Amino acid sequence: METGTMTTGAAPQIQTPAGKQHFAILDGLRGIAAIVVVIFHFMEIVYSDYSKNFAGHGFLAVDFFFCLSGFVIAYAYDDRMPQLRLRDFFRSRLIRLHPLVALGAVLGLLTFLFDPLMGPPAGYGFGKITMLFITTLLLVPYPVMPERFFNLFCMNAPAWSLWWEYIANIFYALVLWRLRRHLLLVLGFIAAVILTVVAYKAGNLMGGWSKDTFWQGGARLLYSFTAGMLVYRFRLIIPNRLGFPGVTLLLLLGLFMPYFPHNWLVELVIVLFYFPALVALGAGARLAPWLEKPCTFSGKISYPLYMTHYGFMWIFAHYLEVYKPAMSTLAIVIPAGVIALMMLGWIAMVGYDQPLRNYLSRIWKK
Questions:
Q1: Helix, strand or coil for residue 221?
Q2: What is the DSSP string of 261-301?
């Protein structure tokens, strides 16, 4: 999923209005969270038992993305919405989000068709594959592949959080920006109750990506996006001297925490309280000048990395199935894979996403 922009998973950027502060540390945190998501996806393939996976809570990075998104969208747009036409708002979000949605769908299709270790499953002819690609490209949920655990978007599973990000943007533009902060607080309380019920019934906060857990994604988005907005609306920014390293350590403690007997409750506390506090700390922390460029780079690469990596996870899964490598081998393969996917994200950013967005911005301003 920005600073002056950000979202889920994803976390795409928007232009910060002139004269507004740029929260570079939040950019850096977004990139760290995206890297943790990639590590989590590698490790969940190795360990199906999440209690044995040191990155078993990496999926909570999506909730952090949603919270960060609520903060920066409110920060960037709350005072502009009365003068901004809806079509201009939606156009800017479409330009920012969808080029990488499209690239993720294309890479998902290519890795599905040309996996060097395993071809497409039987029964997937031209028509069905075309439908899977088009629905992923257009973000139309189509969970029909049992081989992929009924992911909502079969060609690029992480796109589920982008679907909810679009919903958040629509809801914000039509309703949320108009709400006074005390009404927003009431909505946040209701969302917290809904999220608590979801966590208790499911036993975790992992849902949202599949056919059977679809609505859990809505509960995760509603609370975290609203909480991020509340951090901004109530000006809960906490001045501190933790800097980027200190706030990063706090984020990693939340994402790499071990499993507990009442794991659903621990995850709930992290999402309800810890992540909003981290956004408040990240917005208020002082950034050392020498870390400004790394934070900026981390923020820029986060969304391309998030949206382009997952097709290669299936190839990695087939590599495990075919070769059954030892853990000593995986200790080399997985870090190398993370670095390679970061490079791919950078290439996608400079060679595709930025040029295309610049082009679309120019032609739509005419």
A1: helix
A2: TTHHHHHHHIIIIIHHHHHHHHHHB---GGGHHHHHHHHHH
